[in-house]
Design a protein that fits this description.
Layout: E1 4-11, H1 19-30, E2 36-42, H2 48-51, E3 56-60, H3 66-76, E4 81-83, H4 89-101, E5 106-111, H5 125-134, E6 140-143, H6 146-156, E7 161-162, E8 185-189, H7 199-207, E9 212-216, H8 222-231, E10 237-241, H9 245-254, E11 257-259, H10 269-276, E12 281-284, E13 298-301, H11 304-316, H12 318-332, H13 337-360
Parallel strand pairs: 1-2, 1-4, 2-3, 4-5, 5-6, 6-7, 8-9, 8-11, 9-10, 11-12, 12-13
Helix pairs in contact: 1-13, 3-4, 10-12
């Protein structure tokens, strides 16, 4: 049987911090090369796992005018399935043309966040419109958790399968033997933007001066946070910027608590990575993350006050932190990419077989 040819609308570059691109790399690196031929775009240094993968084609893009090259690959590339479609001009052009061309190739999109974008002030109307005209027009949609699946159905009346976001639990591992920190360490990892609410780490730092707070990530709020830290003399807060995978793993391993107050999510992989490294995780309950079991692996809080009270309780009890952290590590193993990738493989085979049957009839 010939390998199924898949074009993945993502970059194979090793250093890109974007979570969705990271997910795409994790999946591609694990796809069976005997069953799947994969094409991916590249700008710079390619993830070595993908560079060394058999049956892989890298499409080098120029620094400028990338959209025409991507669009041409969508139209004429030697693939039967287009996966991980992004909300981009090239995607919009292609989807507008494919009906006229009677393109029989399958397009698969992923939904990785709640779908009431129109109610989120930090997302522009133009971005929402582009998303609606690209991702939502895919032949098949997959949500990364049941909450997102329900959100898509509620907001747009569209159905989707569910395949979770994974984590590399062989890479993200605890360091149980390390000595206790002199002061408890609280970690946040994510984009520094309004919907992630990183400013709550600064409020927590003021409330709990005997703990240290570390914030990994960059974004539009970076300068604002830096200014507030200096203005309020928050010596117990450190802005880390973007981190490579090795550095990020060290931050998880050296922390005591993962505090993630974001209010607009789907199933963020950072909370799985944190749990895989043995951290108790504090999140909001408005998106019901399946990767956090309330009061067993961490806490799902209903309000700002509960977020702070849960944090206060964990700061006061190393025993509780370790108990929740051990349970979180065990729970994270259910989301390892080695279990998630075969679900994608099964989906791809199903689509390929359906296309072959349709063409034969």
């Amino acid at each position: 049987m010939k390998p199924i040819r898949i074009l993945v609308d993502s970059f194979a570059d090793a250093g890109f911090p974007n979570a969705q691109m990271g997910n795409a790399r994790e999946i591609v690196s694990r796809l069976d090369p005997q069953r799947f031929h994969v094409s991916m775009f590249a700008l710079g240094t390619v993830d070595p796992r993908i560079a060394q993968r058999p049956n892989t084609r890298l499409i080098r893009l120029p620094k400028h005018r990338q959209t025409p090259r991507i669009f041409s690959e969508f139209l004429w590339g030697p693939h039967s399935l287009l996966f991980y479609l992004k909300a981009s001009p090239a995607s919009r052009w292609y989807l507008n043309l494919r009906r006229k061309w009677r393109d029989q190739r399958i397009v698969v999109g992923t939904i990785e966040g709640q779908c009431d974008y129109k109610n989120e002030a930090t997302i522009s109307a133009e971005a929402v419109q582009l998303w609606e005209r690209t991702i939502l027009r895919c032949d098949h949609l997959y949500s990364n958790c049941s909450f997102v699946q329900r959100s898509l159905e509620r907001e747009y009346g569209l159905s989707s399968g569910v395949i979770p976001t994974g984590a590399d639990t062989h890479f993200f591992t605890p360091r149980w033997e390390r000595p206790p920190n002199p002061r408890p360490c609280v970690l946040f990892v994510g984009s520094l933007c309004g919907r992630k609410q990183p400013e709550m780490l600064l409020s927590a730092a003021a409330r709990f001066p005997d703990a240290d707070f570390r914030i990994a990530g960059t974004g539009v709020m970076g300068l604002e946070l830096k200014t507030q830290i200096e203005r309020e003399s928050l010596a117990n807060v450190t802005l880390l910027g973007n981190l490579g995978a090795e550095q990020l793993r060290e931050e998880y391993r050296n922390a005591d608590i993962f505090f993630f107050p974001s209010h607009f999510e789907g199933s963020p992989k950072v909370i799985v990575e944190a749990a895989a490294c043995g951290l108790p995780v504090i999140v909001r309950n408005n998106y019901s993350p399946e990767t956090v079991i309330n009061e067993i692996t961490g806490y799902q809080a209903a309000s700002d006050d509960e977020l702070y009270s849960r944090l206060q309780a964990l700061l006061a009890s190393r025993e509780s932190r370790l108990k929740l952290g051990h349970a979180g590590r065990l729970h994270s193993l259910k989301f390892d990419w080695s279990l998630i990738t075969p679900q994608w493989e099964e989906a791809f085979v199903t689509f390929a077989n359906a296309t072959a049957d349709r063409q034969a009839s």
